[in-house]
Each structure stands twice: as C-alpha cells, then as structure tokens.
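Thread: Newbie trying to understand structure tokens

Hi all, I'm a second-year student working on a class project, and my supervisor (Dr. K.) asked me to get a predicted structure for one chain before our next meeting. I've only ever worked with sequences, so writing a 3D structure as a token string is new to me. If someone could post the tokens and maybe explain what I'm looking at, I'd be very grateful. Here's the chain:
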Amino acid sequence: MKKAVVLISGKQYLVEEKETLRVDLLPEGTKELELPALLVIDGEKTTVGSPEVKGVKVSAKVREELVKGDKVRVIRYHSKKRVHKENGHRQKYSEIEITSIK
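---
Reply by user tm_fold:
Sure, no problem. This is what the structure looks like when written as tokens:
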C-alpha cells in the first residue's frame, strides 16, 4: 500500500489511503484538499522530492469541520507569594480522510 508524507498547515503527516486524521483547523468552507507529496513509499521503493515529488498528488476530503480536542489545564503558580492562576484550553481540529494517492 502506498504511503506519503504531506504538508498540512506547516506540519508533516505520514498518510495512507482510507486513513482518517486530525489536523489543525482548516479555513471554513474547505471541502476537498489536493496536497503535494514530499515523500512517497510504494512497497520497497521510496521517492524523495525536492521539495515535492513531481506528478504525485494526495487527495483528501473534510469529514468534520470542527472537532474539539481534550482539555488541557494550564496552571501558573508562584510559591510563597499566594499567586495561583488556572486556565483551560481546547484545541480545535478538522477531521480529514485521505481518499487517494495518485
């Protein structure tokens, strides 16, 4: 099965066909993506691009636009000063499915 390394929102992901993954929130209204491949693994053969592999495109479709990640607690504390501050953060993601590697 083919695998490829793609660049989405400044981060690299190793993907294969029919795989679902969470990426940073994409602009609203994005339904389908056409991504260039930085590296392609096809069985024993590996092709490295400079910076992209020519003629290889990875197609993906957005399954869900807004998925919330786990809550992360952020605590700021200074000992002996009675300073204690607590915040929470939930990262927003887009869930995409890789449809094909051509």
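A couple of things are worth pointing out once you decode it. The two ends are 12 Å apart (CA to CA). The mean pLDDT is 95. Feel free to ask follow-ups in this thread.
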